[in-house]
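Support request, please re-run this one:
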Amino acid sequence: MLLSLTLYQFALIAEHELSVAEGFNVITGETGAGKSLLLDALSLCIGERADSAMVRHGAAHADIYAQFDVTDNSVVADWFASNERTLEEPEVLIRRQLSNSGRSKAWLNGAPVSLAELKSLGVLLVNIHSQHAQQALLKPQFVVQWLDEMAQITPLVAQTATHYQQYQQLKRRADDIASRAAQRQDRMQLLQSQLADIAPLLAVDYNEIEAEHEELSNIEALMQEASHGLHLLDNDGDEPDVMTLLGQAIKLCDNQLGVSQTFEQASEQLHLAQQQITEVTAMLSDYAEQQLPDPERLQTLDNLISLGHRLSRKHGLPASDLVTEAHDWQQQLEQLENEPSSDALAAQIDEAWQEYLTSAKALHKARTKAAPAICAQLVAQLQPLALPNARCEFVFTKKPTESAYNAQGCYDIELLFSANVGMPMQPLHKIASGGELSRMALVMQVLQAISSDNNAAKPMLVFDEVDVGISGGTAQVVGELLRTLGQTQQLLAITHQAQVAAQAHQHILVQKHHHEQTQSELVILTDSAQVDELARMSGGVTITEVTRDHARSLLTDVK
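Re-run finished. Output below.
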């Protein structure tokens, strides 16, 4: 429940802390006094968008604090746990700050909080019913949602919606695959063609092929170079060669082995060099005397190199990178080949549709079973509100085609109503007057509030302009209804009717003062002050003993 609402530099209010009582709290005041300011401030604390115009003129920023008692409120405790926040005490303090530049900040128990988080928490703390509820009543979706909440079948509603969404997702996927079938086939053919083109390169190491091609293309010149190198190392002619000179050096060092260790080490190294040169000589000899390569091999290499150059130009990649690219093509092709066809999804779609129909059938059965009792409750609450002959009925009409089925089920649902004897029931928008609609909307909201689990912690209910379209004895019945509801749930309502205000557990007056700067003030009324306000609401500007006596009688009638 809301314990207090504190405002600083907010609109016409300079500074005020309001303690909110348990039960039914009512707000009254002259037109233009600022009665809606409290609702605006409360809305900001539960995540509504801010407006810089709400900052009091001349102030840099406005601050609003809302303090809630959440003792034994497991829903709020679960919210804190799921959002990884700590709730050390059974108390929630929300602060919202608005700057005159249009920016806003929010804190939850002293820690920064996003507006999205604040809004998700706010629906657990406060439930605001706007004065436009009677217009919402004319929308079929509102009636369906109200019926489902009254029947307490929202899990079944959610299950039906989930099954319908799953069916739609599969159907969209199949439609998408079918629409892309031609493009898919073209892409597969292109990838297959590209992979076929590059297949010869995938079987070899292109870098090695380039090196071999370079060597074989110059093989005769390389063989000549090998012969020349061999001649320099070892020849039978008169020209000096490396092996002869090396032999002479070895002999010189060997003659001095006993004289100096240096010659011994030099001799060892020269013998090693002689051995290595012998190996090199054999290598060059083999190379120089080899047979010329097979022309077909050279042609094969030419073809591979030409293919590499052509594909390189075609795809704008170095030939050595084409192999990596080919692996990507192969993966794409496999993915396209493994993609299920629209026909393959048909069985899944049919299964999902049957699951949806099963849920929708169960939902329809639950709705039709609960509807008569809910209508009886609605009529029982409407009749005391100057509608003694009120009758209503839910009508279920199966949608004409399966394509018209939706997440809410297979039936259109209308709430038929009649306020007069002998007149047939018809849809609300055809026959209900504005006053009848306002009473219907109020009763539906009240029934919706009391239909929830009585043992569970309930959010504070806020009614904006609760008395639209009612007056006189009807207003008193509305007041009694709200007071009864206040026995189990905290309420805050704005009203213009003295009969409604008299039923409140706490009466809050909003009054405007014109000093150097206009200012609204909040006053909790008791005793004679409450009597005077009720007299003003009943009799107008001039308050007489007659209007005071009438106000006192309203308070006396409170049960």
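DSSP finds 20 helices and 15 strands in the chain. The two ends are 23 Å apart (CA to CA).
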